[in-house]
From TrEMBL:
The keyword Transmembrane is assigned to this record: yes
Residue range from the parent sequence: 233 to 507 of 510
GO molecular function: cyclic-guanylate-specific phosphodiesterase activity; diguanylate cyclase activity
Protein known as: Bifunctional diguanylate cyclase/phosphodiesterase
UniProt key word Membrane: yes
Record lineage: Bacteria, Pseudomonadati, Pseudomonadota, Alphaproteobacteria, Hyphomicrobiales
Amino acid sequence: ARAGGIGNWSVFHQQMGLVAEYRQWIESELHTAFERGDFVVHYQPQYDLLSGKVVGYEALVRWRHPERGMIPPQEFVPIAEETGMIALIGEWVLRKACADAHLMPPECSVAVNISTVQFMTKDFLSQVRGVIKATGIEPHRLELEVTETAMMQDRERAATILEELARMGISVAVDDFGTGYSNLSYLIDFTFKKLKIDQSFVRRLETDANSGAVVSTIVGLSRALGVRTIAEGVETENQATLLKAAGCEVVQGYLFGKPAPLQVRETHVEPPRRV
Ligand code: C2E
Ligand code: CA
Ligand code: CA
Ligand code: CA
């Protein structure tokens, strides 16, 4: 029997030792997929633990292949990074997310993942400026999620870019914090607004005391640096409670909402009045 979804297909290939072939297929399909308009953006809410309100949405790209179905980002983003296609896809996601921000409550920010390759592109800043101009998003509503790895490629350049983004009023969150470099000296050089606690720490929060210690330390570090903390991958009430107790301000995870297409409220138009 034929496997239905891409997930099965991918597992099948891994079992057959045909990973390379699957990679090659993705690589050859990416460009067509982009031009065909296969990519969509889903949004996952970010909750403020104090107010209990949604304060932002993270934009997460999805590849809807007409025959293969949904291909998860872990399967194509790394390949798109290798081939450089991520620069095109990433710019499109940025543009789409900034345009979609107009359909979100005005107090909500939109967080966009920036890959290392995209961050290192020569014209990255002008790309961001262009998108802001074209979409009219207020810069303070835009947040860029950048990993430590991206910032460490070229520290001097990264510091300059981060400074300029801050000057433009755009905030930056350090994504997957604690999973990249153990060298924390970059925190001194870099301008950013948030540390995003990686879900690997959140997952082990209930069972592993060390995980709790790491989370408390990150929160303490954030406070000392004057930045905010957000935790990702929150799946249980207990995790949310522990994070709140540790002083974490914002949370994101299946407990509060899975990534989903933007819910656009239909505009209500009054029917013409009978006279
Ligand atoms: P990430 O930036 O760390 O995003 C968080 C991932 O965790 C997302 O996976 C999200 O759907 C998932 N997640 C959210 N809440 C929960 C939860 O409660 N439990 C669990 N187990 N998972 C949760 P997703 O959407 O599959 O994306 C995976 C990765 O792909 C992202 O990790 C990011 O590194 C990359 N990615 C996604 N969209 C983009 C994009 O537009 N541009 C770039 N450059 N990378 C992207
Ligand atoms: Ca992210
Ligand atoms: Ca993350
Ligand atoms: Ca991650």
